[in-house]
Amino acid sequence: MEVAGSLRRKAPVVHDIDFAVIPKGDDFGAWREGVKERVQKIGGTVITFGEQISDFFYKGAQVNLFLCPGPESWGVTLMWATGPKGHTIGMTIKARDKGLLINSRGIWTRDQRPRLVPARTEHEVGKILGWKYKPPEARGKETKEKPAFY
User: Fold this and answer.
1) pLDDT in tens, 35-52
2) DSSP per residue, 21-80
3) How far apart are the first and last CA of the chain?
4) How far is Cα 52 from Cα 93, in angstroms, rounded to an integer?
5) Does pTM surpass 0.70?
6) How do residues 81-125 score in pLDDT, each as one tens digit?
């Protein structure tokens, strides 16, 4: 599990808390039920719990778990969960332009039977997409010089 979202980007304002996580064990249902029980035990409220994302409230804050199917997709899930939205849109466009599909669970070929393209790190995601890696705190920041007004 790793902190993601605006906390990882060191944003000045944080509205929710995001984590990227690989569920443990072979039985997703049992893992999900265990997490739900722990959330409730500490006083949280589960809102939704799907196979891609889980949302719950804890002490007035929304907490989101971005679920990664395994180590081969970790870089994609972490990058997707970290965002911001414009960055994930850019990832989607880059993937499309390379004939690939991307979502929070991996990068896929567009073959008749889509194949997962391994991306264990965010750097690997950047290489696959032909995109220069940006550290989380630089994502979503304007990097082009603004025109000087006289």
Assistant:
1) 999 999 999 999 999 999
2) E---SS-HHHHHHHHHHHHHHTT-EEEEE-SSEEEEEETTEEEEEEEPSSGGGHHHHHHH
3) 50
4) 21
5) yes
6) 999 999 999 999 999 999 999 999 999 999 999 999 999 999 999
**Which tokens hold the place of 48?**
């939704």
Token pair of 38 as six digits: 């722990």
**Which residues are bridge partners to 65 per DSSP?**
19, 54
How sure is the predictor about 68, in pLDDT bands with cuts at 50, 70 and 90? very high
Delineate the domains of the chain, giving CATH numbers in brackets.
Answer: 2-67 (3.30.460.10), 74-138 (3.30.210.10)
